[in-house]
Amino acid sequence: MIGNITKGNGFYGCVAYVLGKTSARLINTNMAGETPAQLAWEFRSFANKNPRVQKPVLHLSFSPAPGDRSLDEWELCQIAEDLREGLKLSNNQFILVQHNDAEFDGQVRPHAHMVINRVSYDGECNDDYLDYYRTEKILRQIEKNYDLIIQPSSWEVDKKKAYPKHVQQAEESVTQNIVERLQKQIEQAAVDNPAMPVFVARLLKENIQVDCKFTRTGKLKGISYCLDGQPFKGGDLGKLYTHVGIREHLKVSYQEEYRYPIESLIESYKRGRTIDEKRINYLESWIEWNFKQDSSSDGASEETATIEVLSTQDNSTANLEPALEEVPTIANEPFTKKQTVVVSPPSSNTTVETTQNQEFNELLALITVTDDNKILLGVAAEPSALPQDKPTEQQPDIPEQIARMREIAPIVAEYLLVLNSTAFKGNRYSATIENNQLTLIRNSDGIQVMKASYTSEEWQPVEPPQLGDEDITQLQKLIPVIQQLKNKHQEVSLPEI
């Protein structure tokens, strides 16, 4: 048994449709009217008893499944009564109309349309909560009672068939119907079991708009699609295409940290940014490095690192900046959580041991100076960790922004640590750290360029970072200052940041 429910506000249009077919025949009702106008007036008279109900019209159609036996008039009436009773509509106006315009294998297949007033004789509105679900449960029981072929419920169907209107549109345009096209594109996007951000990017590349719903903690709780201006919930296409199905059956991987890249991709697409194959490849590499490689290195956050800075007779910060060739290159060496770096201006050396301190104990896990004169916290970062074919647009894309955030956040956090402060305000920037969240504001325009938290041994964005090239240049000036501050025998000249 196949059923369908729609709700609306126009009684006359619905009644005129079900009675207007050539083969239509009114087989049961509890109303006095005979014409569409009379019945619509009668329906509206009772609907006005509850003016708060915006959609008092309930249109319910049902028919035996293809290949099932035909139902006679008496059986159609009994099934209609079972449906009304199961949906608690026995005290409401209704008409039951039989149609004979459907065929299967050359034989006429009678089916029925029922128009019901959701406002009862008492002026109470029917509760339509989960009415689709409840209707399917009732139909499953009706199939057993009337010895009909048991049909799977909508939530049990892997791939749903296209609605008649979509089939008609496809026939008129001589193309594959939109439901099958969308199902095929989703399956192709998931063919190699990608991460969820890559899956979404592939659909956006094909101009299939995706909307993901998340819980407060970042868990995926829903997904919908839109193609050619026609929206579909995942369940409208079948259980394979729901947020559960794409993970359990299509094997698309998801973790809570993917929420921010997914939302950023969707927002970029809405703003007109093109998602091409190059960007998808870049995203795959970024995910591979940031999420999959992290699982291979654990436990190093409890270690301390040693940075040997050789003192100099000059107190200026410029003399403390090492030349690039003086810093050991680690690009071709195995990566570990700990690196000891020796910077060698000509003088006697002093060793400074970094230790955990007050509320910054999670932040001072490790200081690493890379071959491009950058400080990282917690894990060494390969100089070529991110692909080199970065987009050339003026505004960096999301993966690059997160990479910038993970470069700058430990610098600012360590600067606060060596100052033994939870805040500083300079000429160009102001920074605070509270509840393990680091906030950086550009003073010139008041823009919050970064807000990040240190969790699971790495920095994660709390809000979208907005770090430009000039911000990176200015904030990297803190690196030699941090090194000098850690040498307690020297005076420090602070940069204007």
Task: Write a concise keyword list for the protein shown above.
five-stranded antiparallel sheet, alpha+beta, 497 residues, 20 strands, BirA Bifunctional Protein, domain 2
Task: Describe this protein's structure.
Helix content is 31%, strand content 21%. The chain has three domains: 2-151, BirA Bifunctional Protein, domain 2 (2-Layer Sandwich), CATH 3.30.930; 164-275, no CATH class; 298-497, no CATH class. Helix 3 crosses helix 4 and helix 7 (196-205) runs parallel beside helix 10 (259-270). The longest helix has 21 residues, at 398-418. Mean pLDDT is 77; it is low at 295-393. By secondary structure, the chain is of the alpha+beta class. The chain has helices at 11-20, 36-47, 73-86, 131-145, 164-173, 178-189, 196-205, 234-237, 245-248, 259-270, 277-292, 398-418, 469-475, 478-485; strands at residues 2-8, 25-29, 57-63, 94-99, 103-104, 107-108, 111-117, 209-214, 220-227, 230-233, 306-310, 341-343, 349-353, 367-369, 375-377, 423-425, 429-434, 437-442, 447-455, 458-463. The chain is elongated, with a radius of gyration of 33 Å. It has 14 helices and 20 strands. The strands form six sheets. Strands 1-3-7-4-2 form a five-stranded antiparallel β-sheet, sandwiched between helices. A five-stranded antiparallel β-sheet has the order 16-17-18-19-20.
